[in-house]
Amino acid sequence: MIRGPKKDMPHSDYLVALQPVPRGLEAAATRDAVFEKRGTRWVATGRLGAEAPVRRLKGPGWTGLKAEVVAGITDGTGFHGAAGNALWAVVSNGKRSVVADTQGIVGNDRVTMKTIHSIRFPK
């Protein structure tokens, strides 16, 4: 997990979480993230079932998927979409993957994407 100064992100616990998983892209995307494969097309599902478009990613030695889905918080009065859109990405070398996500308040920026694109898998 990458964290920033609490004063700059008072309603978030982290900027971006990066979770390595021992499986390929399709399994990681469906088991560890918010992606679903429908035929040859990928979709991402956020809170309340809202679907989001999925973009393919490519980096050195890996391929991946990325989407921004509806995020929010649940409290005693129900779900609130005040958190905006959370970024989800999965990158994989075919055997291992890294799942990345943000909470939707901070971390959905080019610096986070630069971090995701910097991921390297050992040979």
Walk me through the structure.
The protein is mainly beta and about 120 residues long. It has one domain. The protein is built from 2 helices and 10 strands; from the N terminus they run E-H-E-E-E-E-E-E-E-E-E-H. The longest helix is centred in the C-terminal third of the chain and has 8 residues. The model has no long low-confidence stretch (mean pLDDT about 85).
List the helices and strands and how they pair.
Elements (H helix, E strand, L loop, with lengths): L16 E5 L3 H7 L3 E4 L2 E5 L5 E2 L2 E5 L2 E9 L2 E3 L2 E3 L4 E8 L4 E5 L8 H8 L6
Antiparallel strand pairs: 1-10, 2-3, 3-4, 5-6, 6-9, 7-8, 9-10
Please describe the structure with a list of short key phrases separated by commas or semicolons:
mainly beta; three-stranded antiparallel sheet; 12% helix; 123 residues; 2 helices
Low-confidence stretches: none
Q: Helix/strand/pairing class, anyone?
A: mainly beta
Mean pLDDT: 83
Q: How many helical elements?
A: 2
Tell me the total number of β-strands.
10
Q: What fraction of residues sit in β-strands? A: 35-45%
Largest sheet: 5 strands, antiparallel
Taking Cα atoms only, what radius of gyration do you get, to the nearest Å? 14 Å
Q: How many domain modules? A: 1
Task: Summarize the entry for a quick read.
By secondary structure, the chain is mainly β.
